[in-house]
């Protein structure tokens, strides 16, 4: 999908779906209690690949599900905010080197 990244705001970039509540956490009892099925499946951001990779390099899935499950919460994280501010003025084809994801 070519669109605008909902984090950095760059236009004419390919976007991927980022589940704000990662699918692997949907089966956890505390996540099921906190969010209904529609919320778990519907909280999605369309973000460019560099932003998506950076989110997963900085935050683990449980942390994403429990703390950073909205766009506002993601942008409140200092490392995410710094990266988004940095990449916002880069051209659409720019591909930064990304750290390995947290597991």
Explained architecture:
This protein is α+β, with helices and mostly antiparallel strands and 103 residues long. 43% of the residues lie in helices and 14% in strands. The chain has helices at 29-34, 37-42, 49-58, 61-66, 71-76, 78-87, and strands spanning 2-3, 13-19, 44-48. It has a 3-stranded antiparallel β-sheet with strand order 1-2-3. The protein is globular.
Main pleated-sheet profile: 3 strands, antiparallel
Give the number of helices.
Answer: 6
Q: Taking Cα atoms only, what radius of gyration do you get, to the nearest Å?
A: 14 Å
Q: What proportion of the residues form beta strands (DSSP E)? A: 5-15%
Q: What would you call the shape? A: globular
Number of strands: 3
Give the spatial strand order of the biggest sheet: 1-2-3
**Class by alpha and beta content:** alpha+beta
Low-confidence stretches: none
Whole-number mean pLDDT: 84
For this entry, what is the oligomeric state of its chains? single chain
Percent helix range: 40-55%
Kindly report how far apart the N and C termini lie: 27 Å
What pattern of helices and strands is seen along the backbone?
EEHHEHHHH
